[in-house]
Amino acid sequence: MPLCVYLCYTAGCQQKVERWMPTAEEGAAARIECPRCGEPMQCAWTGSQAPTPNLKDAKVPPVGPVR
Ligand SMILES: [Zn+2]
């Protein structure tokens, strides 16, 4: 029973939700609404052996100028 992670990519929200799913396939297919802004969240992880992703590792645009 994989623990699936969903991230909200809405600017200023970036909520992270973890859900236990019966299978990784169901976790990837699930459409989770962000509890904060109501937008659909992206499935970031479906319970593989990889470590849990953090928001700072996700595809979030960097804040401020990048040198
Ligand atoms: Zn959100």
Can you characterise this structure?
This protein is mainly beta and 67 residues long. The chain has one domain. The chain is 9% helix and 21% strand. The protein is built from 1 helix and 3 strands; from the N terminus they run ββαβ. It has a 3-stranded antiparallel beta sheet with strand order 2-1-3. β1 and β2 form a beta hairpin. The N and C termini lie far apart (42 Å). The model has no long low-confidence stretch (mean pLDDT 84). The structure holds zinc ion. Zinc ion binds next to loops.
Give a nutshell description of this structure:
The chain is mainly beta and 67 residues long.
What is the topological layout?
Layout: E1 3-7, E2 16-20, H1 24-29, E3 42-45
Antiparallel strand pairs: 1-2, 1-3
The site of zinc ion has 8 residues, from loops.
Labels describing this entry:
67 residues, mainly beta, globular
Rg over C-alpha atoms, rounded to the nearest angstrom: 13 Å
How many H/I helical runs? 1
Written as H for each helix and E for each strand, in order along the chain, the element string is EEHE
**Strand line-up across the major sheet:** 2-1-3
Q: In percent, how helical is the residue content? A: under 10%
Number of domains: 1
DSSP strand count: 3
Given as residue ranges, the uncertain stretches (5+ residues, pLDDT < 50) are none
